[in-house]
Amino acid sequence: MNNKKLKFDPCVGCGYCCLTAQCAVSLRVHGQQDICPSLSWNEKEKRHECELVFLPGILGEEFKKELYIGQGCCSSLNSWRKEPNRNRIIEKIKEIEINKVEVPLVFQEWCNIMGKQFMSGDLIALMLINFKNVMMKKHNWSEEYTNAYAEKLSNYIHQQRSTFAEQFLG
Predict the structure, then answer these.
(1) Taking every pair of C-alpha atoms in the chain, what is the biggest distance, in angstroms?
(2) Contact, 162 vs 117, CB < 8 A?
(3) For the segment 105-127, what is each residue's pLDDT rounded down to a tens digit?
């Protein structure tokens, strides 16, 4: 029998746990959310905090126990610990907005038609670069939004390309 105790590193408040998966407490209190409304950034301490564990009385204490607050970090895959003093809530909001980029159906169909044409991958790449430049300069799209949109367009085009065109033209 293995009697080794697991070693946990102290929590640095990097936000990894809360921003990568909504906990059971948050789901019960808030329902499914893109970002837990109880997660906050403590500017003075430069760390993320769960406001639910600061509730007065037994409820806050029960949440602390259930969430293992004070027990440390057990995620060996958590690279955020190396840069903990960074408000990642803002980054997560941007990521969510970018993932919600929607390409109108008519534009999707246009990309599908383009993908079936016999044109090189270089030409497609140049067209997308030109599209990104126009949208940022002429229409003031943010770089993040423009890149996300162009990525979706590229995916629509490449999904329609035959393997022969892909191999022959790149």
Answers:
(1) 69
(2) no
(3) 888 888 888 888 777 778 888 99
Q: What are phi and psi of 39, to 5 degrees?
A: -80, 130
Q: Tokens representing 82?
A: 């190396």
Those residues with Cβ within 8 angstroms of residue 88's Cβ, 6 or more apart along the chain or in another chain:
14, 15, 19, 48, 80
On whether the CB atoms of residues 110 and 41 are closer than 8 A, the answer is: no
- 9 DSSP assignment: B
CA distance 113 to 104: 15
Task: Provide φ and ψ at 47, rounded to 5°.
Answer: -155, 155
What confidence tens digit (pLDDT) does each residue in 11-37 have?
A: 888 999 899 999 999 999 999 999 999
CA neighbor of 127 nearest in space, from 143, 115, 140: 115
Global pTM?
Answer: 0.61
Q: Which residues contact 46 (CB under 8 A, 6 or more apart)?
A: 13, 84, 85
